[in-house]
Design goal:
315 residues; eight-stranded mixed beta sheet; disordered C terminus; binds zinc ion; GlcNAc_PI_deacetylase-related; metal-binding; zinc; Mycothiol_biosynthesis_MshB; hydrolase
């Protein structure tokens, strides 16, 4: 690919995220999305389902749930749009169009078998929809879950499969995404977060406190490829979490999902690279885009990124 044509227009950096339900993007990557969007990158979110089977936290909205009015999916389209407005992300799409794939519910429930649910989707067909987006956006970085979906939810596992298959299909069609990343949380960060939560020593509005086992995608620190410092965007992430009010309750630096267990909030978001050329430099990188490839973005005289050796390693 030495003959790469000049992109027709900015933004030069393009990030694609593939998520299962509205709210996953904000919880996992909200600070990352806000940061890159603010820096002028194109941030594209593909959400695979409407999250119809989610439990509803606010009592006054309980009627939306799938066992009552079954209008939660429609409602969550609005929550997602509001969250994306908070993050400054303008390109958000549903895989195959809104409502194409239904939320499959937690692993082992009857909803896993419902025709039209994402768990029952043909991976190649679903990945074909994603490949269309990839060919449209031509991202350099793709973010999704690990092969266990972070915590075993069928739609998250399927999102992982579809993302990696979509990556392959798009490569066959002429756009190979430079790097693919899985969402992860380093063990030390989880331990620190829960220590912070314990030290807060105050009464939560939540029923209980989560444990590190409740955090998806926890891995050993040395397996983490990139840590994106989104602390400057923590407030935006919090605001976006609040926009997903049916799913997330926020209290200061902590939040709870429908299990009502308090969890620490993370503004530094971590990724493990699973496809593509290694990022330049040694140790953990701080940017999902390779330093050096985007020299035009750097201020005059600035070293290309925080990884030592990045300049000379383009080989
Ligand atoms: Zn989810």
């Amino acid at each position: 690919m030495t003959d790469r044509p000049t992109p027709p227009a900015p933004p030069e950096r393009r990030l694609l995220l593939v998520h299962a339900h509205p709210d996953d993007e904000t919880i996992n990557n909200g600070a990352t999305m806000a940061k890159y969007a603010a820096e002028g990158a194109l941030v594209t979110l593909v959400t695979c389902t409407l999250g119809e089977e989610g439990e509803v936290i606010p009592p006054e909205l309980a009627h939306l749930a799938s066992d009552r009015d079954d209008t939660l999916g429609e409602y969550r389209i609005g929550e997602l749009a509001a969250a994306m407005a908070e993050l400054g992300v303008t390109d958000h799409r549903f895989l195959g169009g809104a409502g194409r794939y239904r939320d499959s519910g937690m692993m082992g429930v009857a909803e896993n078998e419902v025709p039209g649910c994402f768990w029952q989707a043909d991976v190649d067909e679903a990945a074909g929809h994603l490949a269309e987006v990839i060919m449209d956006v031509r991202p350099q970085a793709l973010v999704t879950y690990d092969d266990n979906g972070g915590y075993g939810h069928p739609d998250h596992i399927q999102a992982h499969r579809v993302a990696l298959r979509g990556y392959e299909l798009a490569a066959d069609q002429g756009h190979r995404i430079d790097r693919v990343f899985e969402i992860c949380t380093p063990r030390s960060v989880v331990e620190e977060g829960f220590a912070r939560l314990a030290a807060a020593g105050r009464d939560f509005p939540f029923e209980g406190v989560a444990t590190p086992d409740d955090v998806p995608g926890v891995i050993d620190d040395d397996l983490v490829s990139v840590a994106v410092d989104g602390s400057a965007y923590a407030e935006r992430k919090t605001a976006a979490m609040r926009a997903h009010a049916t799913q997330i309750a926020v209290d200061g630096p902590f939040f709870a999902l429908s299990n009502d267990l308090g969890q620490p909030f993370f503004a530094t978001e971590c990724y493990r690279q699973v496809r593509g050329a290694a990022l330049p430099g040694e140790g953990r990188a701080t940017d999902l885009f390779a330093s050096g490839l985007f020299a035009a973005d750097l201020p005059d005289g600035a070293a290309p990124g925080e990884h030592p050796g990045a300049e000379g390693s383009a080989s």
